[in-house]
What does this fold into?
Amino acid sequence: MAGVSRAKVMPVARLSTFVESGAGASPCWNVFCIDNHIAFTPSLSVVGDLRLRIDRDDLRDLGGGTYWAPADLHDQDGQPWPVCPRRTLRRATERLAEEGFTARIGHEVEFTLFDALGPQEWSAYGVNAALRQDGFVRDLLDAATTAGLTVEQVHAEYGLNQFEISLGPADPVTAADNAVLARILVSRTARAHDLRASFAPLPVADAAGNGAHHHLSLHREDRPLFSGGDGPHGLTTPGARAVAGILAALPDFVLVLAGSALSHLRLQPNTWGGAYACWGLENREAAVRLCADTPGNPRGAHLEVKPIDASANPYLAGATILGAALAGIEGELPLPPEVAVNPAQLSEEERRAAGVALLPSLPADLLGRLRTSRLAGDVFEPLLLEALLAVKGYELSEYGRTPPAEVAERFRFAWTM
Ligand code: GLU
Ligand code: MG
It folds into this structure.
């Protein structure tokens, strides 16, 4: 729930145990917090036991005799456990499928390297920046090849020592697995180069933030929803409703998508983080950027959902976006007007007239909105919501008022593997 990946390790000779009965884990794993505090709830305590079960086909080669696989949480009888994030995303994908829609997601993975280069050696998106780290980049791409991870591009980002890798699109569960795998490979490769990778939403106070944007495409019977229609820029009717659904849901789901004690420091105007709940064609300041179908976009049209950061559990973030898109389609939500400029440049009055607002950032607001969201009750099991609210509630009350520089330093490597 804190976005931190956790694991059990077994010798390879016990692989069948991991696959069949699973490895043991306490239910209080579900309420481990960012700083290792345990936010016990009435239902999640020291009593009970769970099983982490993996699928043999999901094993990924990390090199050097180490393998990783994403696990599903089960109870001891082998029944799915309601707090399992992978199952939650699988259910959201199946619900879309029941209505005839298929989704593909590609994740962006942004990170900042520490103990790297000084500012004079770094230009945003610079050739100098990429070349100075070419050993790291080459080893990362080799590791991705060994692990079977499709990396579409790597670039030096805007911030000092900040990089991004863009992962190829896949079905939502595989895409989230890939996002976790990518963070493992980035973390390991960085260590091998005497570097440390931070995925923190704000790695250093006043520096560029790290996002974890999702690129989403939807299809019905092989026909794309975000192109080939009569709506703005070729949006189909259900495509426009899906955009509307995501925009309507975003304010209630900030706790899930960017809900760490650091996240609101990243989610600011003029950071390309999508702080304003609006949409626009290729608008990098809009929470939902429409990437239209053009010859320059060979995979076709898709949405880039920008507010998400790496403190979000990628499975729960995916489930949220899919659930919101489906709610928009089923509720026939009208598409709000497009915002074709940087919303930060509009006056307060112009923004009000256009119905454009910043996403909420106050802890009480984030917690209250998720707690009372009907859609959250649809997408998440009650026990999962209980765990999420306990973990985030603790984190925001404990660190919500800590000065930015201090909280950035404290949690700089919290999401590193
Ligand atoms: N670093 C920006 C963020 O925090 C995103 C930059 C981009 O890839 O557009 O979301
Ligand atoms: Mg980027």
Q: What stands out?
A: The longest strand covers residues 101-114. The mean pLDDT is 96.
